Amino acid sequence: MIEVEPERFEEMVVEALDSLPEELGRIMSNVAVTVQHDRGPAGLLGLYQGVPLTRRNASYSGALPDRITIYRRSICAICASEADVVDQVRRTVVHEVGHHFGIGDARLRELGW
């Protein structure tokens, strides 16, 4: 386990989001990414809550933003170095963004995320 200061961890999340392909960023819609500084429920590293883009239709309007939550302490608990945290943050962000695009857990695992 490694301890990463909250501000540094938040920077890692921003860097992970910034590293996504530009075309994905352009089509992400109505989603907020937040950092929770305690552990995630049931050991989750991240959580997507919302309506995936693939399930939205013409009647989708006025909805609250989808939410992607990244859990700092859960990620730090499984990492041995800051470099491990950077890698795990990126993997977790990509995984949760995948859910926003309608990709399920099984397919994300097949893809290595």
Strand residue percentage: 5-15%
Shape: globular
- Whole-number radius of gyration? 14 Å
Task: Report the order of strands and helices.
Answer: HHEEEHHH
Describe the 3D structure.
The protein has 113 residues and is α+β, with helices and mostly antiparallel strands. The protein has one domain: Zincin-like. 44% of the residues lie in helices and 14% in strands. It has a 3-stranded mixed beta sheet. It is globular, with a radius of gyration of 14 Å. It starts with 5 loop residues before the first helix and ends with a helix. The mean pLDDT is 93. It comes from Nocardioides taihuensis. InterPro entries: Zincin_1, Zincin_1_sf. This is Metallopeptidase family protein. Pfam families: Zincin_1.
Gist of the model:
With 113 residues, the chain is α+β, with helices and mostly antiparallel strands. It has helices at 6-18, 22-27, 72-77, 82-100, 105-110, and strands spanning 31-36, 46-49, 66-71. It has one domain: Zincin-like (2-Layer Sandwich), CATH 3.30.2010.
